[in-house]
Amino acid sequence: MSLSIKQGTVRHSTGYSFKGRARILYPMKKNSSSRWLAHTIGTESYKLLNFDHPTIESLILDEMDTGFDVYYDNRWGLTTNFSNWLAENRHLVANRNIIILGAGAGIETLALAKYGKNIYLNDLSELSLKLCAEQLDINELTNYQLIPGDFTKIAVPPECDLAVACFSIYCQATASGIGKFLDRYDGEVIIVNEYLKAFREFLATTKRKHETLQEWEGGIALRFFSKS
Fold first, then answer.
1. How much is the pTM?
2. Between the CA of residue 155 and those of 65, 78, 142, 149, what are the distances in Å?
3. What domains appear along the chain, each with residue ranges and CATH number?
4. What is the mean pLDDT of each run of 10 residues along the chain (228 residues)?
5. CA torsion angle 155 159 161 165 (round to 10)
């Protein structure tokens, strides 16, 4: 796997920073010729933004150069698994108004827009939201609104009855942020995450009742029940 690396403080799309390297991860075979890549979720075809495309890569690196360091990856394998699982379990999100925390331009936004009623895309990075909107538009998914900012501070639209966070817990700061969101949000929450140390510690301390929806190698999807 090849890496494009920028030293400094990494800020994930959730808005929480930690010291390290801001990285853009690429698969072994880079394809920079096309802005869009074909992708399948379940049995349906979609177009995904190609982060290897020079124009998109340049936008991302320019954003990092302003001091706003955001962690991008080519595509999380876990969110791909989650999106395919949603295709088989779409009843869980059907007719739901869903806020997606730290959405970036993730594959799960396509699945949730397709199977849900409306989605509300949250990210600290306005560039991420712009790219995500472009990706949704080209797939003729227009049932979305953009909510930039820190999800521990934003006003969650009152109609939202489900929150989804994919790979948002990877250090103590992000675990604390998700914990704060769970404290103030009464609705149902789905968290999809790899079994990182911070995530395991979060599960050991959270008091919010939850259940396992699905497990994959190295990761899990959990449903945290509504408080009401």
1. 0.86
2. 29, 28, 22, 10
3. 3-73 (no CATH), 77-224 (3.40.50.150)
4. 31 38 40 87 96 89 75 70 97 98 93 98 92 97 97 96 94 94 97 96 96 96 95
5. -40
